[in-house]
Amino acid sequence: MDDDSVVAIRCPNALNRNLCIICQSNRKKNDQLSSIKTSGKETLLLRAEERKALYDCQYSIAISRILNTIKPDDEDCDFVYHRTCYSLFTSKEKIERMKTKVADAKKKTTDEKSKAPPVTRSKT
Ligand SMILES: [Zn+2]
């Protein structure tokens, strides 16, 4: 079983390449791990960059893992992923929503001073 050690692992470690690159677990029994294609790597990298720029704390570990380990040109660098993780992570809709949120939050902090304290909503 040690034969594989001769083949140098070219990707940085701190990553179990037999586990989903996004969640690093295989507990999702209904979601089989698939190996990632070059185009998939590119998409993941792009989304990771976008999420990083938005300070996405939900995926902060996955983001740095992706940015540090995926090299789109390196074909020897294989990863597996869950389809659900991938679609959640790369969801444009989610990223757009985050962008709006971040923009709103920025607006809020600048508006804060001129704004009256929030009124507690009465139940009707
Ligand atoms: Zn996963």
Bound molecules: zinc ion
Helicity, as a percent range: 40-55%
Q: Give the overall average pLDDT.
A: 82
Label the overall shape: elongated
Region (Disordered): 101-124
Biased composition (Basic and acidic residues): 101-115
Summarize this structure as a short list of keywords or feature phrases.
two-stranded antiparallel ribbon; mainly alpha; single chain; 2 strands; 4 helices
Descriptive account of the structure:
This protein has 124 residues and is mostly helical. It has one domain (2-90). It is built from 4 helices and 2 strands. It has helices spanning 38-53, 60-69, 83-90, 92-111, and strands at residues 33-35, 80-82. A two-stranded antiparallel sheet has the order 1-2. Helix 1 crosses helix 2 (60-69). The model is unreliable at 1-13 (pLDDT under 50). The site of zinc ion has 5 residues, from loops.
Short structural summary:
This protein is mainly α and 124 residues long. It has helices at residues 38-53, 60-69, 83-90, 92-111, and strands at residues 33-35, 80-82.
Task: Summarize the topology.
Elements: E1 33-35, H1 38-53, H2 60-69, E2 80-82, H3 83-90, H4 92-111
Antiparallel strand pairs: 1-2
Helix pairs in contact: 1-2
This protein binds zinc ion.
